[in-house]
Amino acid sequence: MNEDELRAELRLVAEVVPVDAAGGRLAVDRLVRRRRRRVAITAAVSGIGLLAGGASMAQAAWGDRTIDVVSDGGGASGTTTQPEVVGLLYLLPSELPAGMEVVAVAPSGTVSASVGIPGSPTQATGPDVRSIYVGEPRAARGFGLVIDEPIGDSDGSELSLPGARPVEVRGHRAVLSAQTFGILGATFSPANAFLATPDLVLRWHEGPSIVSLWGVGMSDVELLAVAASLREVDASAWEGPPLHTTASPEQCETDGEPAVDVPNVVGRSLAEAVIVSHEVGLLVVGTGVPDGDPNALESIVVAQEPPAGSRVVGGSCIGFRTEPAPTATTAGGGG
Amino acid sequence: MVLQALPDMGGDEEFEAFFAATYPRVVRVLGLGWNDQPAAEEATQEAFARAFRRWSRVREAARPDAYVYVTAVNVLRRRARIVEDPVASAAERIGERDAVEEAGVRIAVRLAIDTLPPRQRQAVLLRYVADLPVSEVAEVMGCAVGTAKSTLHRALRSLNVELENER
Questions:
Q1: Measured between CB atoms, does A96 come within 8 Å of chain B?
Q2: With a threshold of 0.80, does the pTM exceed it?
Q3: Distance to chain B for A179, nearest Cα, Å
Q4: Which of A165, A259, A306, B82 has the fewest CB atoms nearer than 10 Å to its CB?
Q5: Shortest Cα distance from A30 to chain B (angstroms)?
Q6: How confident is the model at residue B26 (pLDDT cuts 50, 70, 90)?
């Protein structure tokens, strides 16, 4: 039997071995998803590096390893406390859509101290990245292009956009990958709680933008559905100071011409109330929720001061009294 | 909701095509070559998961499937689930023989493969079923190219002897 005959015979032998390709594909998908839950989010964009993450993400991002962040001499390292979040972002400048904004959401102190981003909460980063937002995670909203790469059992990171595909959502360009992108903002503990209240989240910038959704256990179709349901909010909020759930009363403006109509936020969630208040230029100085309350965002505002309809100076204080939300809003996160 | 794909950011479709074209063969080669079908499936799945994560690089390789073979075999080795006893493997496969016969495939070839020492069997399957060049066969098997060539040569000689005996 010559080589060609042997090849033909061997292939016939092999072909009769049953193979469940569909089951195999699902298994591969599960492996990919499982790995991605263990990774951390950092960003390296156009020569500027940053950490992107919520409070827990900011710690988890570092893992027990050093993550090299492409920046002006920057780098990052630390220890992890919550291994299920996030991902490592590496981007080649050529891969970055023009006009893209990268939003980093994390405790400002942690990020600026760890990554070396100067204290300014918002940073200009060059022509490709318009700004980096660093603020309190609890009230923060934001999304950025997040490419996570597994760093758990894998051999390291690489420059790629695995599984990413371009889509158009509500007239905006977006890049979506069910395994790749994550919502940044609010608390990620659990991430699904964030997805359960998508109206709290984000907006698209005019022009090319990136929608970044981290859908734990969600399909890409579900992710897109969430993306489509997001409420667009005033982009100017991103150009201003960081969003803090609470501010010091000393930060509040008291002098000047009253020019801001106080919105009515009674009955809304605390997160919505904070967002709405910031959008009109008010500083939230009291929320009535204990520090560290994981359900703070879902608390319901039952009273506010000043009352709705008042006209105050821009930058004035506003305070809320809240009660716990009647039911847990944490969602299962889908299939 | 408008869902419109935009150009030049693909990857999923290409990977899916690669998976569809490659996965069954990898599973079969590893299952036959390493005598552990479940382990072969798991290792292949792991290899494809890794390939997916490195797809931008893997896709550029001359033989992306070689990456999968190398990775899967490494996984198999690491898990120490390789059955090295060809006699036992042949006995275990008796149950599969009916299916082989029903498919009209020569039992003799299958049995001849089973008589080969594991390394020869693996080399033959990688070379002639996976269709890898000898250099890639050597990489998968973790040996020199010359060693792979001589292993293949011995395997072919043994197979011909076995098949002659069957006749």
A1: no
A2: no
A3: 10
A4: A259
A5: 9
A6: very high
